[in-house]
Each structure stands twice: as C-alpha cells, then as structure tokens.
Amino acid sequence: MVERYSIVAVRKKKKGTQVAVIGTYETKERAELIRGEKKWGGSRGIPHVMKESEVAEFARQRRTGIFAPTYTPPTQEEIRVKTERQKAQEKFEREREVAKEPTE
What is d(CA 16, CA 66) in angstroms, rounded to the nearest whole number? Predict the structure, then answer.
C-alpha cells in the first residue's frame, strides 16, 4: 500500500487550537512542494507534512479549548466492570435484607 502524505494546519484561535487537513498528496516531495508554494500566513496556521495514518493522533494531541472533545465513551471493559460491580452490590443488599428478617 502506498503511503499518502497530508498537509495539516494547526490554527490557534481565541477559544482553543484547531487542526485541519489542507490537502493530501501521493508523495512527501509533492506535499513539501505545495507547502512551499503556498503562503501560510494569517488564520491558516502552521503547516505540517505528515503521513495520512498519523493525522488523527496528531490532531487529537493538538486540539484544545472548544475544539477538543470533552466526552470519551467508556470502553467495553469499563462497561463490563461497572455492570459486574452493580450486580454484586445488588446481591449484597438482597442478602443483607434477608439477614435482617426475624427468624422464628
């Protein structure tokens, strides 16, 4: 599989840092050439050339403020542990109630 390269801009704004993909190219040389030809001043941000497979991780690390995701869903392992803990607690409470009942 041929690795593609992307130009990624890191834009710093008042409410946080945003990451955007400007373009994706077949070779690193082509991406560097395009990056060198364009004027990258102002709001477009600082350009970086990187492999397409690394863009998501790079973006996750750089986003801040309102652009950063605040909610991360729980993993299957966390859900399973929480469910088991809840079932054990319910079982304990049922046994406790039975133990409180008077015996004849």
Answer: 6
